[in-house]
Write a structure and sequence with these properties.
Catalyzes the methylthiolation of N6-(dimethylallyl)adenosine (i(6)A), leading to the formation of 2-methylthio-N6-(dimethylallyl)adenosine (ms(2)i(6)A) at position 37 in tRNAs that read codons beginning with uridine. The protein has about 450 residues and is α/β, with parallel strands linked by helices. It contains 15 helices and 19 strands. The chain folds into three domains: about 130 residues, 3-Layer(aba) Sandwich (Rossmann fold), CATH 3.40.50.12160; about 230 residues, Alpha-Beta Horseshoe (pyruvate-formate lyase- activating enzyme); about 60 residues, OB fold (Dihydrolipoamide Acetyltransferase, E2P). It is globular. The chain binds 5'-deoxyadenosine and iron/sulfur cluster.
Length: about 450
């Protein structure tokens, strides 16, 4: 058993919710070996980076961040000769042995498949010095039995699959997270019950494509069964991320009308509204099919808020292709859209496609989409004014500790003044009823009317 008594560590987490979940496992695991989590790098003898390589910007940011801590002295009293710098996640997986060559002061490199090896690698690096790199090609197992230290006691990630089999032509994920593997229904249901017994109010099921859950284990997707089983745990709020339109079944859509604790929000990445581009992306649906899914979801439950991901400037995107995306976004009326400029990732098929659209043209398309998204979000939020919504409180708002912040069932941020005699911190993790008075593009504000 590695021993890291009283060693202080801080965590930097980039990228998706899977990484956030991995970070919670890393924190729990290091603490179980005696280490102590601290907030700032100045207090930390160990810095752990859980990295993302989905776009180039994420790579560049990591390199800058790692370099910037190089000259920060160790905390007073440390017995180490240098701060241990550990890089895990998708860049660790992708670059492995090549990373210490790029960043000389890195001590430990681990991958997406062997998070549980970090304490061992750290102990060796502290005792022997030098670089300790260990990355596994792929793993058949799914190590979820590590202790997790949840960032918010009342909200938990529950991974149901890892990896991805889709190979969208722009995406690096299948190369760094491996093939899709599902956990058994029994394991997932048992975890959900344990989380609820531990006081968890909100469970978010995680997977690169939750809709294809179970294909490897049961020969057919059984995501609807997962939703039913986790719903039965009695958790107050059930969510999931992320979904591939090609695998979203009528049965899953129907559950929006059936399960009270399945929250009325759906993240359904469309990527583009042009069939030509969707084909080049290997997405395996058309815009028409996507819109039919949206209509079916709204028919099952008109209150569902929709969000999506869009890539602007995929190789060969014409003005007409972009217009199709713009029109689709307008037609759906999303509450939130994550817009990305295409970033070529080495080793993916799209990286070798001809890409001759000028940068300024892509930027102009991107900016016009962002404007539309903002208008849509405000319009969507206006439908809540006058309604009273249950809000799961997260604590004080960033700007004002007399204002509480939380999320509505639709996953919209809600602000409200903290009621007289209470404080925001003690309300965290509870659900209060808020009458919505005003809508903005990115949040709603209102008044607490009860709990
Ligand atoms: N360039 C830009 N955006 C990308 N995404 C994935 N790969 C790339 C890339 N190479 C976006 C997709 C995905 C989201 C998580 O990141 O929209 O849904
Ligand atoms: Fe990447 Fe496509 Fe898999 Fe999502 S579904 S992780 S975009 S390959």
């Amino acid at each position: 058993m590695p021993n890291l008594p009283q060693k202080t560590f801080c965590l930097y987490t980039y990228g998706c919710q899977m990484n956030e979940h991995d970070s919670e496992r890393i924190a729990g695991m290091l603490e179980s070996h005696g280490a102590i989590q601290v907030e700032t790098v100045e207090e930390a003898e160990i810095a752990v980076f859980v990295t993302c390589c989905i776009r180039e910007a994420a790579d560049v940011r990591l390199m800058g961040q790692v370099a910037s801590i190089k000259n920060i002295p160790l905390p007073e009293g440390s017995t180490l000769s240098k701060r241990m710098v550990c890089i895990g996640g998708c860049i660790g997986q992708r670059d492995g042995d090549a990373l210490p060559g790029k960043l000389a002061h890195v001590d430990v490199v681990f991958g997406t498949q062997n998070v549980e090896r970090l304490p061992y690698l750290l102990e060796a690096a502290m005792a022997e010095g030098g670089h300790h790199v260990e990355v596994l090609e792929k793993s058949d197992s799914f190590s979820t039995d590590l202790p997790s230290k949840r960032d918010r006691a009342w909200s938990a990630w529950l991974p149901i699959t890892v990896g991805c089999n889709n190979f969208c032509t722009y995406c690096i994920v299948p190369y760094v997270r491996g093939r899709e593997r599902s956990r058994t229904l029994e394991d997932i249901a048992a975890d959900a019950r344990a989380l609820v017994a531990d006081g968890v109010k909100e469970i978010t099921l995680l997977g690169q494509n939750v809709n294809s859950y179970g294909r490897d284990l049961y020969g057919e997707p059984r995501f609807a069964d997962v939703l039913r089983a986790v719903s039965e745990s009695g958790v107050e709020r059930l969510r999931f991320a992320t979904s591939h339109p090609k695998d979203l079944t009528d049965e899953v859509i129907g559950l929006y009308a059936e399960l009270d604790n399945l929250m009325p929000s759906l993240h359904l990445p469309v990527q583009s509204g042009s069939d030509r581009i969707l084909k080049a992306m290997n997405r395996r649906y058309t815009a028409e099919r996507y819109l039919a899914l949206v209509d079916a979801v709204r028919e099952a439950n008109p209150d569902v808020s929709l969000s999506t991901d869009i890539i602007v400037g995929f190789p060969g995107e014409t003005e007409e292709d972009f217009q199709a995306t713009y029109d689709l976004v307008k037609r759906v009326g999303y509450s939130q859209v994550f817009t990305f400029i295409y970033s070529p990732r080495e080793g993916t098929p799209a990286a070798s496609m001809t890409d001759d659209t000028p940068r300024e043209v892509i930027q102009r398309r991107f900016d016009s989409l962002v404007d539309l998204v903002q208008e849509n979000a405000l319009e969507q939020n206006r439908r809540f004014v006058g309604r009273t919504l249950p809000v799961l409180v997260e604590g004080a708002s960033k700007r004002d500790d007399r204002v509480l912040a939380g999320h509505s069932p639709h996953n919209v941020t809600v602000h409200a003044p903290v009621p007289e005699g209470l404080d925001a911190a003690s309300l965290a993790g509870t659900t209060v009823m808020v009458r919505i008075d005003q809508a903005r593009a990115w949040y709603l504000s209102g008044t607490v009317v009860g709990d």
